[in-house]
Amino acid sequence: MRSDRPLQGVIVLEFCQYLSGPLAGLRLADLGARVIKIERPDGGDAGRKLAIKDLWIDDNSLLFHTINRNKESFTADLKKKEDLELVKKLIRKADVMTHNFRPGIMTKIGLDYNLVKEINPSIIYGEISGYGKEGPWKDKPGQDLLIQSLSGLAFTTGNAGSNPVPFGLAIADMICGNHLAQGILAALYRRQKTNIGALIEVSLMESLLDFQFELLTTYYNGGGQPKRSRVNNGHSLLSAPYGIYKTADGYIALAMMPVTVLRNVIQCSSLDRFEDQDAFIKRDEIKSIIEECFTGHTTGYWMEKFIEKDIWAMPVMNWKELINHDAYKKLRMEQGIERAGEKILTTTRCPIRFDDEILLSAKCAPSLGEHTGVISKEILEYQGV
């Protein structure tokens, strides 16, 4: 890891657990910040025990390792006065502090923004909630699937008439964590010019509402509730042929294109009666015809035709097919994570390239309290004790 990354020297205290807050910390760490997880001595970040597919590294979940690499761990019982005072001394040295507890929790502890600002007036304080600080949902659990369901997102995936379909990953957590990182970066830039700190607030709900800006803007302006295609739904606002279609041996994805252009390429006479202006009004009928046509040949057969005519189409791959493709290999998205010089897992790298450099870091996630002693010593040195 280079010593001159853009956030080198920035200290982040992460009072976060599970995914959204730690994702923000991961991105800041990738950019060079020193991220210190403040964890409970009796178990730490609850994400340590949140296993994906029951996969573990030592006594922590694989998920914890993927999202907490390149961080440090400092344990403190914030209900104990002496531990809280030690954390407050650490806050004086910090540039950024983040948490993703429910509204009111940090106030009870004595570490809400107004109190922290008295300790460190220039601190950037970032917080994630499920639904914001106000309203009837503010104390409800901010869990990803629940947020997807309330936000309407589950009615954007799948075909019309099918049950609501959630995304197959924790998309609210991931988007919200990135939103927090964006806000923190903006605040760091302003503080560099003015020495003024900031309170950055994001919520899982607001992040998913922003994620649906196309659909909601349509609804706000009289477009009604967007309806999914009955077959091959890809985007409820887009016309045929947009979607994924089965072929003789797999699947193929078609993006935006005039129906007449597609008709000429695939030579499907059943499409002759449709003009380009029919593509939305009659999209289900058009898609059904395309689907029937595609099953007669392989994905490779269709892709050869589409490449020749520069049509926006791609085969639908599984991960085995993807990672063996030369295009994927050129991206170099994988990195090894090490402990004591030994590789313990493979994960994805930071997707950002900086000055034409891929940002890699092999440092594994910390064990609970691994850096408490070192950081405590630093605090004493910082206080001049």
Structure explained in plain terms:
The chain is α/β, with parallel strands linked by helices and 385 residues long. The chain contains 15 helices and 15 strands. It has helices spanning 20-30, 62-67, 81-93, 105-109, 113-119, 144-151, 171-194, 204-211, 213-223, 259-266, 283-294, 299-308, 319-323, 326-331, 372-382; strands at 11-15, 34-39, 56-57, 60-61, 72-75, 96-99, 124-129, 198-203, 243-246, 251-254, 313-315, 334-339, 342-348, 353-354, 357-358. The strands form five sheets. The chain has a six-stranded parallel β-sheet, with helices on both faces. α7 (171-194) packs across α8 (204-211). The longest helix has 24 residues, at 171-194. The radius of gyration is 25 Å and the shape is elongated. The mean pLDDT is 95.
String of helices and strands = EHEEEHEHEHHEHHEHHEEHHHEHHEEEEH
Distance between the termini: 32 Å
Q: How would a textbook summarize the main sheet?
A: 6 strands, parallel
Task: Sum up the overall morphology in one term.
Answer: elongated
Strand content: 15-25%
Class per helix and strand makeup: alpha/beta
| Alpha-carbon Rg, integer | 25 Å
| Number of continuous helical runs | 15
Task: Catalogue the unreliable spans.
Answer: none
The counted number of beta strands is: 15
Helical proportion? Answer: 25-40%
Q: Give the rounded overall mean pLDDT.
A: 95
Major beta sheet, strand line-up: 5-2-1-6-7-8
